[in-house]
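This section describes the prediction task in plain terms. A model, or a person checking by hand, is given the sequence of a single protein chain and must write out its three-dimensional structure as a string of tokens. No templates, partner chains or ligands are provided. The sample shown here is typical of the held-out split.
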Amino acid sequence: MARREQAREEAAFARGDVGVDGAATEEEKDEAEVEKGKAREQLLRGRAYLGREFMTWLLWRSESGDPLVEHDGAGVVVLYLGKVVLRGVAGDVTEMSAKGTLAPYSENVRHSLDRGLLVSQARLRISHGEREYEVTLDSEFLDIRAAKLPALMTEEEDDQLSERLELTEQLSAIVDALVQDFLAVRA
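The expected answer:
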């Protein structure tokens, strides 16, 4: 019997259910904090339409191929690539996905936009000066899902890490500048 109990304790420890002292490893969260987190998530999900409007506005503005905003003394050009996902709030069709080189600018996407669908997720090429980024942008929380950064210039490993971080910060600042431009027009 004692061996079984000891085996159970060791198995619980191995799974990570209990710590060295035998106490539970997960802290119990305060109910108020859990409710606060749920309320925040619902608020952000309720504002997802703003991200969708931004992405749809960006699609409309990017058709010309002209710089959309100035950032750090250089124009920012956005081009939709490959895949675009459109979602609606209500109606018969609630989601449409289009793939292909010029799919975001196709007649089917325009028709879907006319019917009330908004861009939910898309692959973008963002050109800033001589640097080009490719990103997958999601409208729900305005997240960058995936990014391809420009080629690194330095050869030292430590310098490459700091350069990648700098490029990531610059990409974030460019997306922020685009959002600020949209909010100025929308307000």
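For orientation: Residues 157-186 form the longest helix (30 residues).
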